[in-house]
Amino acid sequence: AFERFVSKGLLATYAINWNEGNPHVHITVSTRTVWNGEISWDKSVSRSLVTPSGLRETRRIFAGFINKHQELAGLSDRVDHRSYADLGIDLIPTRHKGYEAHRLEKEGALSLIGAENAQISKENKQRIGEFPEIILQELTSKQATFTERDVVKLV
């Protein structure tokens, strides 16, 4: 967060969620810079970070940071910031469900994003059925070794 945001004068706060199977971080970044205790009303710094290329760069920086610490911890899993398309994997990415969609589903209702993701999963399974090599492409993009359980989760 320092390299990408704070060094540019933006305030950043973060929360790490250690959810089983989905550890992740939430980062909130100010839209205005603060230098020497003075708030600037210019949003050009924060705007440049939320362009498509700015978001890709943020993902690249954070993947490098995570992978460095995974290696230091002796873990073989790696994060790859690139999209399926950039990796040459012929799968459709699902959308992030978020809190509200999960809450609806816990109550027995189907969320729009949940329904869309179910359709995407169905299409991806059809693609894997036609081209099983996609499984290896997807798995090896994230980790050097994998188990039968990892394969089953994909199909």
How does this structure look, described?
- 48% of the residues lie in helices and 14% in strands.
- By secondary structure, it is of the alpha+beta class.
- It is globular, with a radius of gyration of 19 Å.
- Strands 1-2-3 form a three-stranded antiparallel beta sheet.
- Strand 2 and strand 3 form a beta hairpin.
- The protein contains seven helices and three strands, in the order E-E-E-H-H-H-H-H-H-H.
Number of discrete helical segments:
7
Q: What is the general shape?
A: globular
> Sheet bearing the most strands, described?
3 strands, antiparallel
Terminal residue distance:
35 Å
What is the strand content? 5-15%
The low-pLDDT segments are none
Average predicted local confidence, pLDDT: 86
Strands in their spatial order, largest beta sheet:
1-2-3
Give the tally of β-strands. Answer: 3
Helicity range of the residues? 40-55%
Helix-strand string:
EEEHHHHHHH
Supply Rg: 19 Å
Secondary-structure-based class equals alpha+beta
Write a short abstract of this structure.
The protein contains 7 helices and 3 strands, in the order E-E-E-H-H-H-H-H-H-H.
Features of this protein?
155 residues; alpha+beta; three-stranded antiparallel sheet; 7 helices; globular
SSE layout:
Elements: E1 10-17, E2 24-35, E3 38-39, H1 44-49, H2 52-72, H3 84-87, H4 98-106, H5 112-130, H6 133-140, H7 148-154
